[in-house]
Amino acid sequence: MPGSTNGSTKTMGALTVGGLIVVTAYTVALGGNGWLWFGWVVLGLLTLALVVTQS
């Protein structure tokens, strides 16, 4: 059904948003870390790919 998301897509979305919050908090508290941001971008791209393939 178009426009609907399954459980794995919702889980990946939640992990991506949670990861953004964690990486942002780490950056504010301890300073930037490029590898953390790189990992979050990769996770975001994987989530985006999952959403696109589910459509």
Largest sheet: none
Order of SSEs: HH
Share of helical residues: over 70%
Q: Kindly state the mean pLDDT as a whole number? A: 88
Radius of gyration (CA) equals: 13 Å
Structural class category: mainly alpha
DSSP E strands, number: 0
Distance between the termini: 8 Å
Shape: elongated
Low-confidence stretches: none
The proportion of strand residues reads under 5%
Count, helices:
2
Protein name: Integral membrane protein
Keywords: Membrane, Transmembrane, Transmembrane helix
Organism: Streptomyces canarius
Transmembrane segments: 12-29, 35-53
Describe this structure in words.
This protein is an all-alpha fold and 55 residues long. Helix content is 82%, strand content 0%. It has helices at 7-30, 34-54. The chain is elongated. This is Integral membrane protein.
Question: Could you write a compact summary of the structure shown?
Answer:
The protein has 55 residues and is mostly helical. The protein has helices at 7-30, 34-54. The model has no long low-confidence stretch (mean pLDDT 88).
Which properties best describe this structure?
Integral membrane protein; elongated; transmembrane; membrane; transmembrane helix; mainly alpha
Per-chain topology:
Layout: H1 7-30, H2 34-54
Helix pairs in contact: 1-2
